Amino acid sequence: MVQDSDGTFYGTTYYGGTNGAGAVFKMAADGTLACLYSFSGDTDGSNPNGGLLLSRDGNLYGATETGGAYGFGTVFRVSPDGTLITLAHFDDYQGANPEGTLVQGADGNLYGTTANGGQSGEGAIFRLNIDSPLQITRQPQPQRAFLGDTVVFNIATFGGLPVSYQWLQNGKNLADTESRFGSNARTLLLTNITIADAADYSVVVSNASGSVTESGRGPDEHGLIVRSPDARLAWSAFSNSAFTGKLTTVGLRMVCPIGSSRTAVTWWR
User: Fold this and answer.
1) Most buried of the four, 72, 166, 196, 266, by CB within 10 Å?
2) pLDDT of 96-124, one tens digit each?
3) Distance (Å, whole) CA 49 – CA 189
4) Shared domain check, 106 and 177
């Protein structure tokens, strides 16, 4: 498995999924598991063999051992939200049945190997050029956090490398501080957040082909909403007399954050 900057793990299964032809899954840091994509066994491929590559562009790349247009496997890209695009179909002459995890070279190209096919039928080493006009494949996700928390915004793009990034807060360029990191990187990290951090966050990404602006939206879409901590239960006590017909006294003291307008208490037995 590979782990993204927000703590999420990604991986593949050779079998299973909706169609039994393998799947791409994600697992949150708390162990919550979700299926991102199920291969159909048709032109999108089947039986992903090897792990996923987390590229510098924020997307995940992998290969299926079989399936595709010619039945000899595929190379695919899947964004962190589960959108899958088939990038190449093996035709046997240029290789068949890719195995292992792809690697990304300093030139931005993807490299891998096949178990079969090639000019002699004994396998091949291949290179895949993913250079293209820049596009955003995953938008920054909305965040809701409490004062003092750490918040991560990230983005995924597809296109020629290298890619430069400029994060903005309410339309103004950001720079790194003691509590803000990655203003010019794919991942923006905010630590020990305050009310002043509640804002709309957007990013401009650029490569040799030009630039794309992830348009700013309201905080309910992919900005940051900062809340004061909920009221905490500081102390409670009750008598051990709970017989029928006798009164049981329960004491409760709450510690509330400064500025709280009201606190709701629910009792149960």
Assistant:
1) 72
2) 999 999 999 998 899 999 999 999 999 99
3) 33
4) no
